[in-house]
Amino acid sequence: MKRQMDFTMARPGLVKKGDEVEITEGKLMSSYYYTIEPAVAMSANYRKTERLHSTHGVVVEVGETNRGYFVRAEFDEPDDPPV
User: Between these two residues, 6 and 1, which has the higher pLDDT value?
Assistant: First the structure.
């Protein structure tokens, strides 16, 4: 199953469409967040039931909104993710 996730990026040109990216997971008290390494972009916080189970993805879009730059990456996720 394919899953897309958005990341906030501080400045343009750090990644481009088609780039393969590695993701690390960070844990907060009751949620998780993800970073495109090496510290290129960061995701929002996700609940345990929304955790990402892939560590590699592909950039499908890079853009800019009035709030800043973003990266959308796509991941291959298992149909039955571990609990």
Answer: 6
Q: 55's torsion region: left (phi>0), alpha (psi -120 to 50) or beta?
A: alpha
pLDDT in tens, 8-56: 999 999 999 999 999 999 999 999 999 999 999 999 999 999 999 999 9
> Which residues 6+ apart lie within 8 Å of 8 measured at CB?
41, 42, 43, 44, 68, 69, 70
User: What are the structure tokens assigned to 27, written together?
Assistant: 């844990």
